[in-house]
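Extended Data, panel c. Modelled sequence:
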Amino acid sequence: MDNFISLEIIWQDDDLIEIQASSSSGKFFGVTEVYTNYEDLDALANALVGFPHSVDERVEFNAGAKDGYSFVSISFYCFSNSGHTAALVDLEANIAQNQRKNEKHKVTMEVQFEAQAIDSFQKQISSLIRNKAGKALLSGIKPCTQNILKGGICA
């Protein structure tokens, strides 16, 4: 399974859009549908321009309500002083009945990617906003498994 993060517009009206957010870390996969708006997507696209500017920079995108009906959180960051980049993705989706808290599907995963891939993703998000349709796909890489902070090399 490929490593990726995807945002796709699946419905819209004058005030809201519904996006399908999906992600795979190669071992885990999740998908949810959540409501947001074009302003929030625009804020994400603007925040990702030139990311990362420093190894301490974080960019956050959230839609929906944590432990609510559906939720997506994507936190972009560097995980090494060399500027290796990743995103922590948190997806939640309810199933048909909302009687028990444990009926909610949840998955959290890290997706690593090359810094230049974020430039393409940022442009695709801007295109979603401009065209009011489409899909933005951030292609990930195989995760680093060595301890890169102690001199290991990412493959």
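The two ends are 17 Å apart (CA to CA). This feature is highlighted in the accompanying rendering.
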